[in-house]
Design brief:
Elements (H helix, E strand, L loop, with lengths): L3 E5 L5 E6 H7 L3 E10 L2 E7 L10 E2 L2 E3 L7 H13 L6 E13 L2 E13 L11 E8 H10 L6 H21 L2
Parallel strand pairs: 3-8
Antiparallel strand pairs: 1-2, 3-4, 3-6, 4-5, 4-9, 7-8
C-alpha cells in the first residue's frame, strides 16, 4: 500500500498531494504527526520493525504517520494509534516542528510534524508489521539514553522527545499552582 499524503508549505498550508513513497524519495515537505503516550513521568515508546523502509530497529514514540487528504490531523493520530498499537486514547497537540533528514541518496524525511500527547495507563496490542518491541521508560532513563546512545533512536524522536518531556514537566508543575 502506498497511500496519498498531503504536501504543505512552511505554514502547514496544503499545496498538493502525492504518494508517500514519492514524497520520501523526492524530499517533499509533507504533513505528519507523532503521538507520545505518557503516564506520570514515563513514556511508552516503540522499537520500529526491522523491515521498515527507514529507521527500522530504532526506538521512537508510541506511533507516527501521515494524515490522509481530507482527514483532520488529530483524527488521523487517533486512527493510527488504534491501527499500530490497539490503543484508543484521547490526544491533544502541544507543538509542531519541521525537520529534514536524508537517509540515503533517494530517501528523505521532510516533515511538518504535529506532536500529540495522551495520558494513558492501559494495555496495548502492537501490530508486528509496524513494531518489534514496546516499553515504558522513565523520563530520567530516556534522557540518559538519548544522551549516551542517540543512534538507537529515530531522528524525529531525538528532536521531539526532549521537548515533550519538558512540556509535560512544565504542565504538571503549572497544574499545582
Amino acid at each position: 500500500m502506498n497511500p496519498t499524503i498531503i504536501l504543505v508549505n512552511l505554514h502547514d498550508e496544503p499545496v498538493g498531494e502525492v504518494t508517500k513513497e514519492e514524497a520520501h524519495r523526492r524530499g517533499d515537505l509533507h504533513r505528519a504527526f507523532s503521538v507520545f503516550l505518557y503516564n506520570g513521568d514515563r513514556m511508552l515508546i516503540q522499537r520500529r520493525a526491522l523491515h521498515k523502509y527507514h529507521s527500522g530497529g530504532l526506538w521512537a514514540n508510541t506511533c507516527c504517520s501521515h494524515p490522509r487528504p481530507g482527514e483532520e490531523t488529530e483524527a488521523a493520530a487517533r486512527r493510527r494509534l488504534m491501527e499500530e498499537a490497539g490503543i484508543d486514547c484521547p490526544v491533544r497537540e502541544i507543538f509542531s516542528f519541521v525537520y529534514k533528514h536524508q537517509f540515503a541518496e533517494d530517501l528523505y524525511e521532510h516533515e511538518f510534524d504535529h506532536v500529540f500527547i495522551g495520558d494513558y495507563d492501559g494495555g496495548f496490542t502492537p501490530d508486528p508489521e509496524e513494531v518489534m518491541d514496546w516499553r515504558w521508560v522513565s523520563f530520567e532513563d530516556l534522557r540518559r539514553e538519548l544522551r549516551e546512545e542517540p543512534d538507537k533512536f529515530a531522528v524525529w524522536f531525538r528532536i521531539a522527545a526532549p521537548r515533550v518531556m519538558e512540556w509535560l514537566e512544565g504542565e504538571e508543575g503549572n497544574e499545582d499552582k
